[in-house]
Amino acid sequence: MAPLFRKVTTMYARDVLSRPVVTVRPESTLSEAISLLTEHGFAALPVVDDTGHVVGMLSESDALAAGPGQRSGPVETLMTVPAEVAHPDSDVSAVAAHMLTSRLRSLPVVEAGILVGIVARRDLLRALARDDTDLEAKVRALLDIYAGSRRQWSIDVTDGHAVIRGAFADATEQHTIAALAMTVDGIGHVDIGAEGSAPTRHTAAPLAERLRRLADETIG
């Protein structure tokens, strides 16, 4: 029999990053960097050395802050250091939260200090715009495992909001079903209840977190 609490795949920076990455060297002139920024519509450029290590970031703000005569000067005198970076194994949700709180429009992804890609806000938008049909299928698969041959619930997912209706043994089973549904990454909250009755909303329930940890400990 398949395990009930199967691990739900988390999306990482390596799954959404873009490459190859347009970069500049520390000795590149500001004029060269500005040309790249405007040509590609970027908000910032990673600055890398001969070995591919990220040594800084040159942003639009850095370029705009340049004084008279600095356009012909090297990027290394204007770049932001140290550069904020992500690791390929960084959780996409954590990357998105960091970029929002730090007001970053892009974040280099490095491994052992070497640039391997970059994550822009548009990459995150594509990653976080989960397909509701896929989410619904994942929730249904979990509930089918839980219920066996007793397929007795209707499931509808819209914008990460799951609505589950049907016959439940009691309130405890409703809580269990809601917690199972919320172990699926991309499900924000669950409305659950019997047909014809007002549903109860569940959001980020501690039980769901315990189930995730149980899955990690059991299957990981």
Descriptive overview:
InterPro entries: CBS_dom (IPR000644), CBS_dom_sf (IPR046342), Diverse_CBS-Domain (IPR051257). Residues 17-75, 79-135 form the CBS domain. This is CBS domain protein. Keywords: CBS domain. With 220 residues, the chain is of the alpha+beta class. It has two domains: 13-124, Roll (CBS-domain); 126-193, 2-Layer Sandwich (Alpha-Beta Plaits), CATH 3.30.70. It has helices at 13-16, 30-40, 60-64, 92-101, 121-128, 132-147, 171-181, 206-219; strands at 44-48, 54-59, 106-111, 114-120, 153-158, 161-166, 189-193, 200-203. The protein has a four-stranded mixed beta sheet with strand order 5-6-7-8. The longest helix has 16 residues, at 132-147. The protein is elongated, with a radius of gyration of 23 Å. Mean pLDDT is 84; it is low at 1-9 and 205-212.
Q: What is the CATH first-level class name of the largest domain?
A: Alpha Beta
| SSE string, helices as H and strands as E | HHEEHHEEHHEEHEEH
**What is the third-level CATH name, the topology of the largest domain?**
CBS-domain
- What would you say the CATH architecture of the largest domain is? Roll
- If you average the pLDDT, what whole number results? 84
Query: Helix fraction?
Result: 25-40%
CATH level 4 superfamily of the largest domain: CBS-domain
Radius of gyration: 23 Å
Strand order of the largest sheet: 5-6-7-8
Oligomer: single chain
